[in-house]
Amino acid sequence: MSYEIGGDIFSLAELQCCVLRGNMSTAVSPKPPYIEASKSSKGHRFYALQSTDPLVHFVVNNGDLSHPSAVTVFNPVHLEEQLKTAATNFLKHNFWVDVTKRTCFLPKVCDVYRNDFAGGDVTFTVMFCAKFMNETVQANAAEVFKEDGNVQITHPVIKYHPLCEQFHSRLTLLR
């Protein structure tokens, strides 16, 4: 499947990797569904978003069960609010913290595009995700990374969810 935009032809992968992700970093060890689109055509440079935001990783929905079954239709007037809401909805099911085991569980997209989150700093990535969660999860994330100068504390464990290979049978649009 491909789409024509202004006389240029784009695959879905090119739209995601070259236009929506614009000037963001390339995928680290990309495996499907995270792929690098062919850049043999330079037409994407004209359409690539110049301003980028890591939230884009949480709102691009490939239809697998790790994503919500509802897809937001974004409105430029409410874009920032909609991005945050979509990120919260995605992270509700893909991010959590186990304080007793000092473990943070992150969506796979945070591993694949880790360089878009403060150059791959895992502490920043966890805290970036936590800010879209409720106060309890935020406090748990801060607790996992808390250091005590008097006590030897083990480093937190970061785990990424495996890729989901099951898909929604139907997606709905949220307007």
Based on CA atoms alone, the radius of gyration comes out at: 18 Å
Beta percentage is 5-15%
Series of secondary-structure elements, N-terminal to C-terminal: EEHHHEHEEHHHEE
Main beta-sheet strand count, sense and barrel state: 3 strands, mixed
Strand adjacency order, main sheet: 4-5-6
> Structural class, from secondary structure content?
alpha/beta
Structural key phrases:
globular, alpha/beta, two-stranded antiparallel ribbon, 175 residues, 3-stranded mixed sheet, single chain
In short:
This protein is of the alpha/beta class and 175 residues long. It has helices at residues 12-20, 44-47, 56-59, 79-91, 108-112, 122-130, 135-144, and strands spanning 2-5, 8-11, 70-72, 96-98, 103-106, 157-160, 172-174.
